[in-house]
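Entry for the shared binder. Reason: the reviewer on the internal report wants the predicted structure included alongside the sequence.
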Amino acid sequence: ARGETPSAYPDQTIHMSDEGWRRVIGVNLDGAFWCARAALRLMARDGTRGSIVNIASTSAASGEGPIHYVTSKAAIVGLTRGLAREVAPRGIRVNAIHPGPTNTPIMQSVPDDAVKAMEAAVPLGRMAQPAEIAAAALFLASDQSSYATGSVVTVNGGSYFV
């Protein structure tokens, strides 16, 4: 108001610890890789055709959120697309979902005003229910999506178009 340059910056990256970075990358990216690898080893051994569904986030496309989260979820998209090309000759499909804000237990720790702001930013005016994201996963895992591989399905109430 007095012509001053703002000096408050959301310096998440500058202040992020290595442990914080590794923890989120470990859970979101390493976890998805290890699960996919374990499934693929069994599927390849048994000659099983099928589907793997990874959970990314609209944050991967929008860049919104803490940098370690955004990075890990963007990497899930790369993992999904790379694996899709690699294992397609085996009859294995790999896809991902970009869920928007979803009413999961972790949301219970988010302050009410932040939840209300999230919901207000969604054209449908609410967060997803976990069953709505599960329905997309079920579709991608089913034969109804037999020609989809390397795809990312966005389920976010219209809050971000990917």
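Summary line for the report: The beta strands are 50-55, 92-99, 152-155.
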